[in-house]
Amino acid sequence: MKASLLCLTIVFSAVLNLNAAEVTTIYTPSEDFEEVIRGQSPPPTYEETAPYGSNIPPNGSYTVPEGQAFDPNMGGGNLYGAPQGGYDPFLSPGMGGGDPYGGQGMPGYSGSVNGPQPYRFGWSSKYEFGFMPKVRTYVSPTGANGGNFGVFETDIDLTYTTPTKNGWIFAFSPEVDYRGWDGPQFISLPGKGFRFASDFQLSTPANGLWSVQLGFTPAIGTDFGKSLSSDAWMFDARAVLFFRPSNTWMFAAGAAYWDRVGDYVIPYAGIVWTPNDLWEVRAMFPKARVSRFMGNVGDKSVWLYGSFEYDIEAFQIQQAGVNARNQVEFKDYVMLLGVRGDSGCMSIFLEAGGIMKREADFKNGGGFDVKDGFIARFGVQF
Fold it and tell me: Which of 12, 75, 180, 208 is the most interior residue, by most CB within 10 Å?
């Protein structure tokens, strides 16, 4: 393990005081908050829960019997006249779901277009595929022609989410990533790289103004060329503190440590602004996104979005004609336009745009710069 130290001190307050008759459902505002930065840079997720201390729903149309707390899983869609049945916030209007709050925003949430989004405890899976066609490369620092370089990428994640005894949320995510490198012709680079990782995350339910998230991700990046050394192991960590003073604004402050060829400490910080039910602006780093709700198509809620992200990933490799193992890292900036559809058990997306300022650096010196080019991705989560 590299001799690196990341010290993050976080002060937060979360108080949970419920009596035995009360029922609390733990929520995350939207699955949009849980989009993963490509491959090796897991972003923060934004978990929220509502302290249903009142016995009157937000629209005031149904009163829960005395001694019980309102739970949005009660009732049927927009009608609270009968508490039987079960409101499923994943379903669209006309299928037993819809907005249980009569168009009113729920305090502490980003809007009511799709109703509150509860945690999906248990297992879920995600599959993402990306393609970057060949573009010219330049050997650094000379600037000589390195040949053309293209990439095909696959990311597969499984996640198990469960509540802990102290009320926190624990998530465990085994991950397998593949990179197929086509070229460059005049630079020694193997044709493939693999990453195997396990992300561990602890989050506090946001019962008050504050919540926190802690994460640790050990990983192996290799081309399977020879036996592994310490350069194949990477250890990432993150800590983020969230402050939500209203249903319109949320603030995040934190940092992450990325163990690559170099040691990187980057901010995990920014502002989330949700002015209404149709728009969401996440001015965040390392990934920012602006989303616009377009409506329902069948059983899916459709969003149009634009995003910006920064990423670094690394692999230990065996270069042709070189006895010693080496390590390579890839940095890039990506700007994308995409469309996403969310339904009860599945979310899919398709996005395309530009990938810029790509550079590859070798631990033993040298590297190459990649000309700006096109990138397209497709993914499904269920």
Answer: 75
